[in-house]
Amino acid sequence: MSSDAVAAVTETPRNRRQEETFRKVLSAGIEMLRESSYADLTVRAVAARAKVAPATAYTYFSSKNHLIAEVYLDLVNQVPYFTDVNDAMQTRVDKVLRALTLVVADEPEVAAACTTALLGGGSDPAVRTVRDRIGGEIHKRIRSAVGPNADPRIVSALEMTFFGALVNAGSGAFTYHQIADRLTYVVGLILGEDR
């Protein structure tokens, strides 16, 4: 699939039927990841599980890495925004980073597959596009948690810290739960304890 076709698939709004098919394949993909490993997953197998033709699945997902990247984006999109003005900024930021960190914490096969697909799918333009969309969603949640008039340098520092933390968790250096706890400490350093 050409990069123009991939861009059209990812940026063109889908009608209701297309969205249902996309969701059906996406759901089958996450179910299969929860049951097996990255190595065992194929777009064809996911299509069979979703009861759609492989060509239909390939209409929405150019590769296994693209499918897995979309799975991770869907999980990120489920993370709520933390904007309660009654909470201190540090509390809001800690909540959003913890929630984003823990989206795959209790699903090791999903976590491993997402790490592999997002870090290893560099030459696939569809994966790059989804990676950019993931970054955009994370940026929006962090910026929202920081609040109005957010200093872009603070938002950038929090984003870089978050992505570095995910790499540490994805490499196995720490568990996702340990990383979430460490992020609380680092958020305090970046924002200052009194914010």
From TrEMBL:
Pfam families: TetR_N
Gene Ontology molecular function, alphabetical: DNA-binding transcription factor activity; transcription cis-regulatory region binding
Location of the HTH tetR-type domain: 19-79
Record keyword NAD present: no
DNA-binding residues (ranges): 42-61
Keywords assigned by UniProt, alphabetized: DNA-binding, Transcription, Transcription regulation
The keyword DNA-binding appears for this protein: yes
Protein name: TetR family transcriptional regulator
